[in-house]
Design goal:
CATH superfamily of the largest domain: PurM-like C-terminal domain
Number of strands: 13
CATH class of the largest domain: Alpha Beta
Number of helices: 10
Strand content: 15-25%
Largest sheet: 7 strands, mixed
Strand order of the largest sheet: 8-11-7-12-9-13-10
Number of domains: 2
Structural class: alpha+beta
Distance between the termini: 53 Å
Length: about 350
Amino acid sequence: MTLEVNAVSLRDLTSCGGCAAKADASLLKLLRSAAMGQQGDDTLVGLAAPDDAAVTAINDTTSLITTIDFFPPVVSDPFEYGYVSALNSLSDIYAMGGLAKTALLVCGFPKEIQDSEIEACVSGAALACREAGVEILGGHTVRIAEPIFGLAATGFVNPNQIWRKTGMLDGDLLMLSKPLGVGVLLSTREPEHEATALGQMKISNLGARDSLVALGSGVHAVTDITGFGLIGHLSEMLGSATLDAQVQLPGQAVLPAAQSLFDTGKRTSADARNREALDSVVVGLSESSFQAALFDPQTNGGLLASIDPAHEIQLIEQGFITIGKVVTGSGKIEVLSN
């Protein structure tokens, strides 16, 4: 049976959308280990440690960034789905400090989806790429049971200016470029919550990347927040048993509509997974509903940067939010009460 466009939305065809559909961290670790052993002399960032993209040296001033990201529908409108999927994919390049250049489409759609909806999805991605100065060169399309869409993207960065997930220093501040709460808003499947979440997901991380680039050597580590939530991605940034991260979310770090849902006890399906994965790492958790945002899966979430405190005011003026600091420790994340 062919689905009518007005009868069924893309989100009706999937059980878990956006970056909340990511495989858990333990499986990713297993797969990374299975694929290791092929790193060449030109590989600057590969599988040795978790990071947002791969980087290969080209010459003394240029290195190639490669990444791929895709997920099931995160919103009902196919055009917006394509737009957000593209931004989310390009975000990994910005998190490495680079600029995106080209992209290939990754398309998987059930046969019931009308061609017009697939076309709208690709049009949304094309607009996001044009706005970012990225050229779509091709792609691959398959028929599968649940829809997925995203990009395999490339970009460039100076090999001496690559941002890694690890590299935080004692005394650094942790600063976030977007508020949290997209995951719980999308989980309600209510149009007003979806609209609020969409407004956040459509904010490209290119501007945040440019703000951080202006700080030069004051940036010590960067990642983007997606399906593992802020705490999950922060745990990957620690990278050392000699540092701790202390986290304290100010009010502006959580979208008001999302906080209202957290206050009622609403959580996403990924919340328990994200908490369980970090039981041995996180200390100081309480029953406070405000802490729920720490484990909320984001789609095209903000950049999280570990920076020299001297640049705090400059980043605040450009929309960043201070959410914690780095101190000497033993590889833990301490959640401080508000």
